[in-house]
Design a protein that fits this description.
single chain, 325 residues, 16 helices, 69% helix
C-alpha cells in the first residue's frame, strides 16, 4: 500500500463527484444554443467568478489549469505525472520550431501549453538558440532533427510526423518503466490507438508504407508492420486486422462511421482508466482523474463547436465521448 497517496486519493474521491456524468453531457447537448450551453457551464462552476458567456475558450483553458493546480497542491513529486504532459510538451516543441523557422515577430500565446515543465516561452528560447541539450533525453534528438528538417525543407507535415512519433515513443518508454499499472496500460492504449488513427488516415490519403512506419510507434498489442500493410490494402483490411486484436471494437466503430471511430479512440482510453474508481492506495486514481478531466473538457469543446456550427443534437450526440463516472 502506498501511504503517500492516501490523502490525495481521498481528496480526489470528493472531486470525482463534480465530474460530468453522461446525464450532464446530455443536458449540455440539449441546450438550445451555444450561449445557453456556456451558461450551463458557468452555473456548474466552470471558469472563474468573472467569466462570461463570451469567454468559452478561456473557460475551457481555465478548467485545464484548475486540474493541474489541484495536482500540484496534492503531489510533492509531480514527475509521477510527467507522462500525461508529454502530448502538450511535444506540441510546444512543434509550435516553437515553426515559430522560430518562420521568423515571426510575435508568438501567439494560444499556440502553447503552460501545464507542462517547458512552457512556450522557454521552448522558443531553446529552439532559437539551438540549445537542444536542455531538453529531456526523450525529446532532444527528435527536436534537433525535426528543426533541421523543417529549416531545410519547409515540410511542416514531416516535422509533425517526426515529433509526434517521438512523443509516442516517450509515452511508451514511460509506460515500460512505470511501476504503476495504470501508467503502463495508459501508455499501451495511447500508442496503439494513435497507430490505428495513423493507419486509417494514411489509407484515406494514400500514404506509402514508408510514411506509415515513420509515423507509427511500436507497441506490444499491435504489429506496426501488419497494420501498415493492412492500410495499404484498404479500410476493410484494417478492420479485418483489428478484429483479431484486443481493439476489435475499433473495427466495428470504423465500419459504422468516421465520427464513431473518433469517439471509440477516446472511449478506449476511458475504459483503460475506469477501474481506478475502485482503487484507493496508489497514484492510479490521480492519473485517472487528470485523464478524465481532459476527456470531459474535450467533450464539452465538441458540444460547443457543434452548437456554434449549427449541428443537430443527434449529430453532436454521435460525437460526444463516454464519461469516466
Amino acid at each position: 500500500m502506498s501511504e503517500q497517496y492516501t490523502y490525495a486519493v481521498a481528496r480526489i474521491r470528493s472531486k470525482e463527484v463534480s465530474l460530468f456524468s453522461q446525464a450532464t453531457i446530455e443536458q449540455l447537448v440539449a441546450a438550445k444554443s451555444h450561449e445557453q450551453c456556456v451558461q450551463l457551464l458557468l452555473e456548474k462552476g466552470w471558469g472563474d467568478s468573472d467569466s462570461s458567456i463570451e469567454d468559452a475558450e478561456a473557460i475551457l483553458s481555465r478548467e485545464k489549469e484548475k486540474t493541474w493546480e489541484l495536482m500540484r497542491e496534492m503531489i510533492k513529486d509531480m514527475s509521477v505525472l510527467d507522462v500525461l504532459t508529454y502530448p502538450d510538451q511535444f506540441h510546444n516543441l512543434k509550435a516553437a520550431i515553426k515559430y522560430v523557422a518562420s521568423d515571426s515577430s510575435a508568438a501567439d500565446a494560444n499556440l502553447f501549453y503552460d501545464s507542462c515543465s517547458i512552457n512556450g516561452k522557454e521552448m522558443i528560447e531553446i529552439v532559437q538558440n539551438k540549445d537542444f541539450h536542455r531538453l529531456p533525453d526523450n525529446m532532444a534528438q527528435a527536436a534537433q532533427e525535426a528543426y533541421e528538417s523543417f529549416v531545410h525543407t519547409g515540410d511542416g507535415q514531416l516535422c509533425d510526423v517526426m515529433i509526434d512519433k517521438a512523443a509516442l515513443e516517450a509515452i511508451y518508454q514511460a509506460g515500460q518503466e512505470a511501476t504503476d499499472e495504470i501508467i503502463r496500460k495508459y501508455a499501451e492504449s495511447t500508442v496503439a490507438v494513435a497507430d490505428i488513427k495513423i493507419a486509417v488516415r494514411s489509407q484515406k490519403t494514400a500514404k506509402s508504407i514508408e510514411f506509415m512506419k515513420k509515423a507509427m510507434a511500436e507497441c506490444d498489442s499491435l504489429s506496426v508492420d501488419l497494420l501498415s500493410r493492412a492500410a495499404l490494402s484498404g479500410m476493410d483490411a484494417i478492420q479485418e486486422y483489428l478484429a483479431g486484436t484486443e481493439y476489435a471494437q475499433g473495427a466495428q466503430a470504423l465500419a459504422d462511421s468516421p465520427s464513431a471511430f473518433e469517439r471509440w479512440c477516446d472511449n478506449r482510453i476511458i475504459e483503460t482508466i475506469r477501474p481506478q474508481l475502485y482503487n484507493s492506495f496508489t497514484i492510479g486514481p490521480l492519473v485517472a482523474y487528470v485523464i478524465a478531466r481532459e476527456n470531459e473538457i474535450k467533450t464539452v469543446r465538441i458540444i460547443l463547436s457543434g452548437k456554434q456550427n449549427g449541428l443537430s443534437d443527434e449529430s453532436i450526440r454521435e460525437r460526444v465521448r463516454d464519461m469516466y463516472v
